[in-house]
Amino acid sequence: MRSDETEISFKTTRIGFQPLDAQAENVLITFSAEGVPIASTKLSASGLRALRLDESPVLTGITDAHDLMLKRHRTKHHFTV
Hints:
This protein has 4 helices and 2 strands, in the order H-H-E-E-H-H. Helix 1 runs antiparallel to helix 2 and helix 1 crosses helix 4. The chain has about 80 residues and is mostly helical. The protein has one domain. It has a two-stranded antiparallel sheet with strand order 1-2. The protein has helices spanning about 5-15, 20-25, 45-50, 65-75; strands at about 30, 35-40.
């Protein structure tokens, strides 16, 4: 993945998901094409509760470039949508 793709993605996630940004960098979460946060199966039950993904807003304004990067991220790190 090119560094500019990563920069675009994480700048966008910082807008509304600052606590989740670090988790995405640690590959504990990603986002669906619709902007819904998706948790890794690596997270424990207590980790899931701490992130409170069920209360998280949906990421909006996903461009085609973001969508492509998110698809690569989900594939590379074995997330299921």
